[in-house]
Amino acid sequence: MRFHIASEGEILEGKTTDVYFVRTKDILERTHKSRRVYAEFTVMNPPYPWVVFAGLDEVLNLMKGRNVNIYAMPEGTVFKSRSVDGVPVPVMAIEGDYKDFAVFETPILGFICQASGIATKSARMRIAAGNRLLLSFGVRRMHPAIAPLIDRASYIGGCDGVSSIIGAEHIGKKPSGTMPHALIIVLGEEQAWKYFDDFVSEDVPRIALIDTFGDEKFEAIKAVESVENLSAIRLDTPSSRRGNFADIVREIRWELKIRGKENVKIIVSGGLDEEQVSELRDIVDGFGVGTSISNAKTIDYAMDIVEVEGTPIAKRGKFSGRKRVFRCKDCGEYHVSHEEELKKCSKCGGELEEMLKPIMVKGEIITEYPSEESIREYVIEQLKMYEKSL
User: N or C: which end of the chain has fewer CB within 10 A?
Assistant: First the structure.
């Protein structure tokens, strides 16, 4: 093994599970015990007021062809971890003979914990950036084997584009990016900008990186004078600059404007978080965000059996019995009930929609899965209800 990664085959075979699930399955098989169970996936203490549910597509691909039923919210659903009454909100549930899915609890949790964390952070960045360009630059901070996961989750969470070639291919987009400091160090600034303009495909925006050696203001002036059709300039080190970075941007903007270059956009990247993006969004045109998104906190889902052979049962600290989940169309609050269908929100009186629905029956997906573009649009539309609780 040249790289420390599991293959698709090894994941499908259950080799990425925790060993005690294998032992559990072995005991059930040796004792000829069959137990039909219903297990739910919830988040007890998320790092944020709301979470974007992601990773469902991989769960379905893992469980396809196995004799299980899966109920889930649509991928991209923005949810609160608890209902208005404080009950944990199930985002997904799996039903079947426990032997048929016991060993897959570990990879299922891995799929949704990491993807939801990245998608949630991306959505928070989307709110912070407003209508400004938002690109995901974070694949270099994580293992390259999961670059497609990082970029897909970043995109459905709200990023406009992604930087890696394979990640962009995965979502049917072109990769986004400008030039590295390495090109400027090797060639010098003016030659790097010129050769980029001369040789890079015409459909790629001409964006000059301006903070390799000198003062950003003077480098910006030099860049617009060197490249006739310059689209934008990029500053990549806001977190390492002394002084007020916003003032540096305003100074550059002023110098560009008085030279008739007000159409040249300003892109900022390098160590950005939600607070910095919020502070800069009114004076810059776009952001490249890396580590904050790719290294986002995972969402700590748990899978808990809540019913065995039709009888409600759960470990201490959990709510037993299968549940129905509803969301208010007006205020976004969640409601959980055991059996009855709820119609009105107890908080604002708004209409409720049922969120947890069957998506796989006996190992077969029963609904058409949405595209990444559709999931992203769904996420962004929901953020209107939750942006105040960033």
Answer: N
Q: Coil, helix or strand for 234?
A: strand
- Domains with residue ranges and CATH for the chain: 8-116+297-389 (3.20.140.10), 129-294 (3.20.20.70)
Query: How far is residue 273's CA from residue 268's CA, in Å, rounded to a whole number?
Result: 12
Q: In 276-363, which ranges are E strands?
A: 286-289, 301-308, 311-312, 324-328, 334-337, 352-354, 357-361
Structure-block tokens of residue 367:
């609904």
- Identify the CA nearest to 131 among candidates 286, 314, 318: 286
The HSE-up count of residue 21 (CA atoms within 13 Å, CB side) is: 16
- Paired with 233 in beta bridges are 208, 266
pLDDT of 234 reads 95
In angstroms, the CA 68 to CA 44 distance is 25
pTM comes to 0.95
